[in-house]
Protein: L-histidine N(Alpha)-methyltransferase
Organism: Endosaccharibacter trunci
Amino acid sequence: MPDMPTPPDVTVEILSGLTARQKTLPAKLFYDEAGCALFERITRLPEYYVTRAENALLARHAGEIAEKAPIGAALVEYGAADESKAVSLLDAGTRAFTAYAPVDIAPGALAAIVARMRISHPAIPVLPLVADFLQPLSLPASFSDKAAFGFFPGSTIGNFRPEAVHRFLGHVRDTLSGQAAPMLVVGTDLRKDESVLVPAYDDAEGVTAQFNLNILSHVNAIAGADFDLAGFRHRALWNAHEGRMEMHLESLSAQTVTVSGTRIAFRRGETIHTEDSYKHTREGFLALAQGAGWRSGGFWTDPDGLFGMHLLLG
Ligand code: AVI
C-alpha cells in the first residue's frame, strides 16, 4: 500500500479540493489497500485494454528498447509499484543493464521488489530510492559511474495534466543528465474512439465504479469524514476538448457531508472530479516532451496500436 503524506497535509488537500467550485479529490487517494486490490482487478478486466496492450508491446519490443540503453546503464524506474515491466527490459538487455533502481514513495513496495529480485535476478543489484518522483530528485553517489536509463511505464503520465507532464519531464531530464545524455522510455495510452475508452473506465462488472467510490471510504478513514457511498454514483466521460477520460462521483441527492469538522454541501447531480486519464496522440505527447527539452529517439506500439512507448533523448 503506498504511503501517504502525514494526515494533516492530506486533510488540507482534501478540504481545498472539496470546497472548490468543481469539487475534486486527489487521485493518489485511490490507492489505499482496498484501492490497490481493485486496481489489480481493473488491469485484468476485458474492457481495460491498457495493461494488456502495454504488456504485448513489451513482449514484442523489449529487446529493441533495451538495446537503446548504453552498456552498463542503471535502469531507473519511476513509480515502480512492482518490477514486472522493468524485468522485461532487464531480461531483454542483459548486456546493457548493471543495476535496477526502482523509485517510489512507498518503502513497503520497494522492499517487496528488493526481496523478489534477490530471488529472481540475484546478479542484478537493486538500488531502491524512496522519493516522491514528482519532485526534483538526485541520484545517489553510487550512480556516479553509471549511465542512467529512465523508465516510466504504465501510462501513469496520462494521469498528469499537461503542466505536470512538463514539470515532471523537466525534473527527470535534470536528474538523468548528471552522468551522460539522458534517456527516458515512457508509456502512454494512445488516443482512440470513445466507444473503446468509456467502457474501459466504466466496466460491466462495476469494478471501476467500486474503485472510484472507494476513494470516499479512504477519505472517511483518513480525514474523519462521513461520506455515504450509497449517496454517490460513478461516472466516466470522454472530454474530447481536453483529450482525456474523466472519472467523477455524482451526488444522487442534495446532501451535506462533514469532513474533518467542515460541512460540505452537495447539490443533486453535482460531481467530485476524481481522475483525469489523458490519451495522447504520438505527436501530441512528443510536442509536450519537446517543450520540456527532450527529442524523440524511438516509438513503439503494441500490435493493435492501442498503447505507445516513446524513447526520449535529452
Ligand atoms: C494508473 N492509471 C494509469 C490508470 C488509468 O488508466 O488512468 C488508473 C485507472 N483509473 C481507472 N481505471 C484505471
User: Anything to note?
Assistant: The chain has a mean pLDDT of 94. The two ends are 33 Å apart (CA to CA).
